[in-house]
Amino acid sequence: MGYELSIQREENQITLTKEDWIDYIKSDSEFEQIEEFSAEIDDGKFLTVPTPNAGLWKTEKGEVPFTFDEKYGWISVKNPDEKIIKKMISIAHDLESIVLGEEGEKYDEKNLLGKQPTNEFKSKDRKWWQFWKSDKSKADYPTSLDSDLDNDLFLGDCFCSSNREFGIGLMLFEIHQGQGGKYYSFAPVLLNEKKSAMDRFIYGQIKFQPNLGSRTYGIPAIGIINEQDLKELKKHYHKEGKLDFKKSAPKSTGTSYLLGLTEKHLTEFVEQLEYYFTEKERKTVSVLKLIK
């Protein structure tokens, strides 16, 4: 997964807290607090990963996510170059901390390279923001699927909340098979409540939003990362029908929200989506433009 450096307190000190880190982000005009990070992985395709309590360092050459681990109390960056390491050292000074590598080597002004990582960790071809990529072959990467027969799912399946309380439906537009199992992406659809049954979806709308750090737009997707969570979701949402995409799936995909699947959390999440969908700067796309 690449070589990671972290800002952390020494063993005899109190560990860094979320409040310490958030206070720093607010004090540094080059930083912006973020909860997720998106980057382009292929032509027109974006991957978004949750980054709770993270900070985005904005530089002339790009944007660098600094992630925070609340359990261990450290701030981390994957595969940092010399400029990023210098910034990490500067932050460490402000937070009365140190910068350490995975093998315990210390980085400071006199030793920007630390102890050189072994060949196992070197990755010259990987860019700093590709912190989710491993050194595995392409054969190990997730495979896109058109259906999941085990769970009676097909691309284009549309779901409504069981109690009809919300005017938001879910449209399945991605299924992937990875080493850890299957995972799914659902696009929230603003239903046309003047229609009935599947027409509510067909004449509904999908909202597109700017991908973080990019001028392109993507669908805010609800990510389901295991089949147990999928079963929990299906307790609260039932399949209404199926629509066929003009292509295998909408290409402009982006920001993902991972659901905490209790009924209370699910309800709160949908209420949040209602709020997000009212923002006027987001683009509105008719479902009719995405289906056959």
Q: How does this structure look, described?
A:
It is built from 5 helices and 18 strands. The protein has 292 residues and is α+β, with helices and mostly antiparallel strands. A hairpin with a 4-residue loop joins β4 and β5. The chain is elongated and about 65 Å long.
Structure summarized in a few sentences:
This protein is 18% helix and 39% strand. By secondary structure, the chain is an alpha+beta fold.
The total count of strands amounts to 18
The pLDDT mean sits at 78
Question: Would you identify the regions where 5 or more consecutive residues have pLDDT less than 50?
Answer: 116-140
Strand content: 35-45%
SSE-based structural type: alpha+beta
Largest sheet: 9 strands, mixed
Encode the helix/strand succession as letters: EHEEEEHEEEEEEEEHEEHEEHE
How helix-rich are the residues, as a percent range?
10-25%
What is the CA-atom radius of gyration, in angstroms? 21 Å
User: How many helices in DSSP terms?
Assistant: 5
N-C termini distance = 40 Å
Q: Shape, please? A: elongated
Structure characteristics:
7-stranded antiparallel β-sheet, single chain, 39% strand, 292 residues, 9-stranded mixed β-sheet, 5 helices, 18 strands, alpha+beta, elongated
Which SSEs are present, and which pair or pack?
Elements: E1 4-8, H1 18-27, E2 31-42, E3 45-59, E4 62-69, E5 74-78, H2 82-94, E6 98-101, E7 106-107, E8 143-145, E9 147-148, E10 153-154, E11 157-161, E12 168-178, E13 181-190, H3 199-202, E14 205-210, E15 217-224, H4 227-236, E16 237-242, E17 253-258, H5 263-277, E18 283-286
